[in-house]
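Field reference: sequence -> structure
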Amino acid sequence: MTEKTHHDVIIIGAGAAGLSAGLVLARARASVLLLDAGEPRNAPAAHMHGFLSRDGMPPAEFLAAGRREATAAGATIEPATVRGIERRDDGGFDVTLAGGTVEVARTLLVATGLKDELPGIPGVSERWGALVHHCPYCHGYEVRDRSIGVIGGAAREMSLKQAGLLRRYSDRVTLLTNSIELTPAERHYLGAFGIRIVDGTVSRLSGEVDGPVAVSLDDGHSLECEAVFIAPVPRPTDDLLRSLGCEADPRTGLVAVDAAGQTSVPGVWAAGNVVTPSAQVITAAGAGSASAIAINGWLLQQDIVAASAGRQSA
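Structure field:
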């Protein structure tokens, strides 16, 4: 086990939040190390949307540009998986990587994102990010005026919201209830808004992976759609935060952070989808920037206190 350089900040995760934070901190002349496992949430998508000046940019190009900017400012980015984190006697952190190497930091920013738990419907995963989507704001405009199927699922309220939002993009929206039991009131307002309702359990998606989707039901009926939306269950990759003892919000169950991303553990911040599952790319980037400014202020305060104590003892 080899101990490496001490850093002001270690950022775990180099997506939009992590890279944005790395850029801000590196420009503030902090010593920054970004550790990235290389599993971005939006990797299956061909394009990202809603990011001012970057609308339609492929996610891989966006991340590559962010890496170039962060490293040009002085940040270091390494491909690595974090195995564990321990608090040091001096208040810092030992970050142990999968290979056994230990990196040391005064502060941490965890930006490890989340994983989308897709329903176990055959044909969904093969089309995920291409013809099967989850965010109307990210992909609704691209499928405007087309036939859209919304498959109900475990995230019940989100499924209903998807159907309502997508009706603004097309007058051919069908809600396939799947596992959802609709109340009479819900059926009324969905129908009044022009949303077709098809009851039944979805058994599979078929057809060409880049063409219309045939949504088959257990009763033998099928519906052809040009786009499909589902509401996957978000699973934040927050094991590291919880292992450090970060408190969770009792209402949401998510790791709790303040407006700048600071957790209940001194010296530990979190930003992006790991604590805000609904955050889009632009939102996550903004959260990373806010956390970076807060971290830099925290480091400054620590340095001032240390310098003051040194002068008094001299």
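Note: DSSP finds eight helices and 17 strands in the chain.
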